[in-house]
Amino acid sequence: MIAWLDLAAGASGDMLLGALVDAGVPVEVPAAAVAALPVEPVRLRTEQVTRHGLGATRVHVDAPRTTSHRTWTDVREILTAAALAPAVRDGALAVFERLAHAEGRVHRVDPEEVQFHEVGALDALADVVGVVAAFEHLTLDRLTASPVTLGSGSARGAHGVVPIPAPAVLELLAGVPVLAGPVAMEMCTPTGAALLAARVDEWAALPPMRVQRVGTGAGGRDPAELPDVVRLVLGEPAGSPAGAVVLETNVDDLDPRVWPGVLEELLAAGASDAWLTPILMKKGRAAHTLSVLCRPEAVPVVQAAVFATTSTIGLRTVAVGKVALDRTEVAVEVLGGRVGVKVARDAGRVVNVSVEFEDVAALARARALPVKEVLRAASAAAAEAYPPSV
pLDDT tens digits, residue range 366-378? Predict the structure, then answer.
């Protein structure tokens, strides 16, 4: 599953939490994570609201009022002591670490000495831990987001009057596409900016996807210029359910003895498969077409490996569909050893069974037997253990 955040109205911890809950994350998920914090009792409460006619979920953090100005050291100790899942604890620590370093640069102090003031309050702790727990619950493959609206003007904070966008927000979102937007007020809080910086993989327009759910999270204000909401769009990538990319190049000036090592390097770099096809090029030159199959996210690394290991100076890239059977890796006992087996199923039916040749060769060497004999015995054992379904 992939997701996209619409940040036309900026972002805050409660807006992101509202969008996640509205998109289907049970509120009990972030509530349980918040309850695990070794602090005063904190409770999450949801409310259905409208913003410019749009229905949205607002998540309230009910917590005792506090004037505590927690340092990064205090927050780190709270999160480390909490009975949280490792991914949630580490994710929350990463968010607050970003905040500490951003505030440290703004105030020219060591991050360990930063006092979070508003950010260190119980509601911010709850927002960060709740949002991280909700994202972990979704187990997203990728999270993208629109440019972030930051707002403009000024606001009064713990240090006095500060310009909007807040200095810490600009530090946190360095390198991220941002804009002021139409409203002269704070549209993105430091907590929201830190969560975005820690969780978003790419900043772009809505990617091609088959939409499954949309969550709308509301902030506490309702400006006249635009709806004060964050939208979270969940779905599956558009196109083939198992898309892939084929990289191709024709090579006529590489010593053939190099090719086996090239193929090994490409597989080690993340290619799903790599192969050579003999061809005849112009002027009768004998050559090879190198074809490399890989996942879209692996293209940069595999592409670099092609250029590093071959003499080519260019590549063709072709997006292709891919259909793959469900596969299970098991093993069979044969001739006093174990040989790996891949069992392929189509709609639950066994349609193919293949033994791992490297295991066969290793067992043949260990038993001083011909490879063909071990291969025959292993294939028979695999077929008997996993007969084709009828």
Answer: 999 999 999 999 9
